[in-house]
Amino acid sequence: MTLSLIATFAWLVLANVLAMLPSNDNHWRRAYFLIALGLPLLIWVFWQNGPWIGLLALAAGMSVLRWPVRYLMRWLRGLVAKT
């Protein structure tokens, strides 16, 4: 197992632990923190393990951060609908 996958699994554990802790802002600050950590990890996984494993890591990250992904999709749909 490569170091990038170990770091990604550690990110997933950290994300789950942070989700269990109470939050006043519905976990948005933690989501921003996890996104900032996760994007370089995702690039590293794609570079070191190839596209298929990278897509699996992307799917795992999207399953953890599903609300930011939903809001991003709504925002993108709104941009497309305006044009």
Kindly describe this structure.
The protein is mainly α and 83 residues long. The protein has one domain. Helix content is 86%, strand content 0%. The chain has helices at residues 3-20, 28-49, 51-64, 66-82. Helix 1 (3-20) packs parallel to helix 3 and helix 2 (28-49) runs antiparallel to helix 3 (51-64). The longest helix is centred in the middle third of the chain and has 22 residues, at 28-49. The radius of gyration is 14 Å and the shape is flat. The termini are far apart. The mean pLDDT is 93. It comes from Thalassococcus lentus. Pfam families: DUF2484.
Task: Summarize, please.
By secondary structure, the protein is an all-alpha fold. The protein has helices spanning 3-20, 28-49, 51-64, 66-82. The protein has one domain.
Identify the notable features of this structure and list them briefly.
DUF2484 family protein; flat; mainly alpha; 83 residues; transmembrane helix; 0% strand; 4 helices; DUF2484; membrane
Write the layout of secondary structure elements.
Elements (H helix, E strand, L loop, with lengths): L2 H18 L7 H22 L1 H14 L1 H17 L1
Helix pairs in contact: 1-2, 1-3, 2-3
Pfam family, one: DUF2484
Protein name: DUF2484 family protein
InterPro entries: DUF2484 (IPR018919)
Q: What is the averaged pLDDT score?
A: 93
* Order of H and E elements: HHHH
Poorly predicted ranges: none
Strand content: under 5%
Cα distance spanning the termini: 46 Å
Domains (count): 1
Largest sheet: none
Class from helix and strand fractions: mainly alpha
Q: Number of DSSP strands?
A: 0
Determine the fraction of residues in helical runs and give it as a percent range: over 70%
General shape:
flat
Radius of gyration based on Cα positions? 14 Å
**Tally the helices: what do you get?**
4
Keywords: Membrane, Transmembrane, Transmembrane helix
Protein name: DUF2484 family protein
Pfam family, one: DUF2484
InterPro entries: DUF2484
